[in-house]
Amino acid sequence: MNQYFVRARLFPTILTAIPIIIFINYVLNKELYSSLNQIYTILPSLAGFGISAAVIFLSIQINRIVSKELFQRIYFKEEIEMPTTKMLLWQDSKIDKNTKSKIRKKINEKFQIKLKNETEESSEIEESKKQIVFAVSQIRNLLRGNTFLFRHNIEYGFIRNLIGGSLIALIISIVILIYSYITKDNTLKITSVILVAIYTFPVIFSKFIIKKFGNYYAKTLYEQFLSEK
Fold this sequence. Notes:
Elements: H1 3-16, H2 18-39, H3 43-76, H4 83-86, H5 97-111, H6 118-123, H7 125-142, H8 147-183, H9 186-204, H10 206-227
Helix pairs in contact: 1-3, 1-8, 2-3, 2-8, 3-8, 8-9, 8-10
């Protein structure tokens, strides 16, 4: 397994898989235990372990889809509103104009992409953003082997997938909480309340967190691009 998969996809999935593992092993297994136990005593444990492992690997894909298709689409409208796009606009102040000019000049030299000037951008803002999105994709391809940028890419991927997984974990935690009230299971009730509190935080602050790490990544991308020979 490569480093990105382990650190940016597997780790956040493990951190957000706690509710589903509890649901499988404490709720479902509890219901199925007697019937499985009659066949073979070790079957309940094997079934719980096997299903949990399968769910974790399935969750890796689900978390990625949720984080990318839901949060990224809502907050960044695909890539049109990504920090990497906005940061290169003349109207954005996160990078000074002199540095922007250097980045834009290098984009033109490397990829023959001439980004719009300030006057053109103000009257054609959407077209300017689309142009930058394409330019950024070329920069990423150029810097594909950059170790420093790769580390920031892992950080951003970890955070994005953690937030996607937290939404699913929150929903499952609420289901467990409802089940605990029905069964009057105080231990499960306390556990589910704690889980709801834990996973609510990243969901509520998801926009702030994703944009913060997105800005870190964007700045690193352009810094590394300028230093590329």
